[in-house]
Every structure is written in structure tokens, then in C-alpha cells.
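testing teh design pipeline on a random one, pls ignore if ur not involved
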């Protein structure tokens, strides 16, 4: 089995969580935080779920016996993703089979071997501009968590990476404005990254010098493509970029 790592936009997607205990609570709140509409079904619900549901119309609790396939089926049909998270193996098996028969994506929190969606350990840097996910695909969450924490320590202490990040998020919208065709634009990112003056500025942690070096490369490449500009104008364009491009 080969799983493909993806970042998915969850806003408005429907997630059914079967099981209102500790694991079901964590998964329900995790998907809800990402913008999904979440419905939790089960015979009982954690205090935290009950408290959160009282003030959140996007988090619904439905009391029913998940072992009753006929009662559960409409809820599975409603969902885009089904989370299996009860402490009853026979119920988990029945839910998994029903969700699979209806071709719903399944996150099985009770069986890593058959889950289709893996929930990783994540970390955000630069205000969420750089996101990292780590998983052992259920083999050992302890090791995955330690790996995430070590990655955080490494990246947070890397001054050059922070400089590179800020310089390049300023470069992207300027390049898109000056050179609309992606075929012509994409190679320029690599020429900036490979430029020796740009590399030295990044190593020193100087965003100012990095932008000036990037401006020289962009102006040179733009002129080669027939776009009239100069390094000073490009530099001012880079400095005027206020925030990174939204991925959405």
C-alpha cells in the first residue's frame, strides 16, 4: 500500500466521527478546526465535545447505536470522510465496511493498516507559512512526535531559512506580474536561488541584501524575455509586497 501525502482544503467538507470518546473527540475537533462540518455519532460523548457543540453550529452530536447499520447509513451517506473511533471492534468493523461500500474516505483511528487517511503530527512556522507533517503511518506515534519536535528545533534555529522564506514570498507575486507565462517564469526562481550573491545574503540572514540580489536576477531575466525594467524598479516592487500569496 502506497499513500500519497496531500494538503486538503477542508472548509465546508462533511466529516462523520463514529465514537464520542477521547479519540473521537480529538479527531472531531481537529477536523472542525480545519473548517469541516463535523457530526459525531455514538451512545455517549465527552464533556469537551458537549461543551464545544453547545456554542458551535458546525459541530453536531447525534445519539445513536453505531452498531445499527440501518440507523447509521444515512449519516455515512451524508459524509465526505468517515472517522472510525469507537472502543468496540465489531462496531468499528461494521462502520469501516459500510463506509468503504459507499466509497467514503475512511480515517480508521483504531487500525493503522486499513486506514485510508492518516492524521499526522504537524508543526507550523512563520505564522503558518511553512507547514510540516510527520507520520510513521501508525507504526509508532511516539517516534513521529519526537521527529516533529526535532524538526521544529532545527528549523526554528535556522536564520537563513527564515530569510529565504521571506525573500521568496516577496519574489513570487512580482515575478507573476512581470512574467505571466509560467513556462518562462519558473526557471527564474531557480536562477535566483542559485545566484551567489543571493545565497550569501541568505546565509547572513539579510532580507534586504537578498531582495536586492533577487531584483538584479529578475531584471536581467525579464529583459532577456523582452520585458523592459531595471533592478531598482524590481527592488521597489519586492519591497511593496505586504504579505504572501494565499494558496487558495
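output:
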Amino acid at each position: 500500500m502506497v499513500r500519497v501525502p496531500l494538503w486538503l482544503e477542508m472548509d465546508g467538507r462533511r466529516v462523520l466521527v463514529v465514537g464520542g470518546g477521547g479519540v473521537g473527540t480529538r479527531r472531531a475537533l481537529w477536523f472542525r478546526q480545519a473548517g469541516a462540518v463535523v457530526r459525531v455519532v455514538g451512545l455517549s460523548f465527552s464533556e469537551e465535545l458537549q461543551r464545544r457543540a453547545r456554542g458551535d453550529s458546525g459541530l453536531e452530536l447525534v445519539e445513536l447505536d453505531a452498531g445499527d447499520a440501518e440507523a447509521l447509513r444515512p449519516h455515512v451517506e451524508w459524509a465526505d470522510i468517515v472517522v472510525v473511533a469507537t472502543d468496540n471492534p465489531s462496531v468499528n468493523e461494521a462502520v469501516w465496511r459500510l463506509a468503504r461500500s459507499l466509497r467514503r474516505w475512511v480515517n480508521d483511528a483504531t487500525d493503522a493498516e486499513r486506514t485510508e487517511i492518516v492524521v499526522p503530527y504537524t508543526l507550523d512556522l512563520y505564522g503558518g507559512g511553512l507547514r510540516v507533517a510527520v507520520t510513521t503511518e501508525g507504526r509508532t506515534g511516539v517516534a513521529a512526535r519526537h521527529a516533529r519536535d526535532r524538526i521544529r528545533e532545527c528549523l526554528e534555529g535556522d536564520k537563513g531559512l527564515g530569510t529565504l522564506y521571506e525573500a521568496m514570498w516577496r519574489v513570487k507575486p512580482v515575478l507573476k506580474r512581470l512574467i505571466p507565462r509560467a513556462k518562462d517564469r519558473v526557471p527564474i526562481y531557480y536562477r535566483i536561488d542559485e545566484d551567489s550573491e543571493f545565497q550569501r545574503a541568505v546565509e547572513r540572514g539579510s532580507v534586504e541584501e537578498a531582495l536586492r540580489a533577487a531584483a538584479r536576477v529578475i531584471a536581467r531575466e525579464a529583459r532577456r524575455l523582452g520585458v523592459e525594467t531595471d533592478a531598482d524598479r524590481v527592488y521597489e516592487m519586492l519591497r511593496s509586497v505586504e504579505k504572501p500569496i494565499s494558496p487558495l
